[in-house]
Write a structure and sequence with these properties.
It is a single chain. The protein is α+β, with helices and mostly antiparallel strands. It has one domain (3-193): Maf protein. It is 29% helix and 25% strand. The chain has five helices and eight strands. A hairpin with a 5-residue loop joins strand 5 (116-126) and strand 6 (132-143). Helix 4 (173-179) packs across helix 5. The longest helix is centred in the first third of the chain and has 16 residues, at 47-62.
């Protein structure tokens, strides 16, 4: 196994991915690294379906092993919003500062024990022979009351981890990779790739 394409353009995500998959005997390329420009419509109804749609499309395009993930934040009190719409919540070009502030506002007055949430990550691996394997990882926590921390990206600054006493944006990259939804899913898919 020489080359794996990870169907993302998100550099923050690629940093995490490369770190976790470092011990695989393969070069892990982003879409940009592989010179691929594809506009894939993610119209699935679950994280798993969206990951499979992306992985299959790029695999058919390239003939390479392709990994794709779909991940997001589920807030129980908000009926699991933003869910599969996490990246597009409030519009694709809306900054996460604005998205995070909106979610905190929507949870105003909601008690700690009702602020439960999780980051979910589904990863699909599409192989040139048509096989597709899918795994899921989750990281449980709560929605905080303000943004905290400079590490991570997206919703990390408002995702509070009670057992660590901090948000996922306050963890080091190494700590986060050990416990994150993406870290868990990447380790699970790594077993499928071996």
């Amino acid at each position: 196994m020489k080359k794996i394409i990870f169907a993302t353009g998100n550099q923050g995500k690629m940093k995490e991915i490369r770190e976790i998959l470092a011990d695989l005997d393969a070069e892990v390329l982003s879409l940009k690294d592989a010179g691929i420009e594809a506009d894939i419509v993610e119209d699935g109804t679950s994280f798993e379906e969206n990951a499979q749609i992306k992985a299959k499309a790029i695999c058919e395009l390239t003939g390479e092993i392709v990994l794709a993930d779909d991940s997001g934040l589920e807030i129980d009190y908000l009926n699991k919003e933003p869910g599969i719409y996490s990246a597009r919540y409030m519009g694709e070009d809306t900054s996460y500062r604005i998205k995070n502030a909106s979610l905190i506002k929507r949870l105003e007055g909601v008690a700690d024990e009702q602020r439960t949430a999780r980051f979910v990550c589904a990863i699909a691996a599409a192989f040139p022979d048509g096989t597709v394997k899918t795994v899921r990882g989750a990281m449980e926590g709560r929605i905080g009351y303000e943004e905290k921390g400079e590490n991570g990206f997206g919703y990390d600054p408002i995702f509070y981890l009670p057992e660590y006493g901090c948000t996922s944006a306050e963890l080091s990259m190494e700590e986060k990779n050990k416990i994150s939804h993406r870290g868990k899913a990447l380790r699970a898919i790594k077993d499928e790739l071996r």
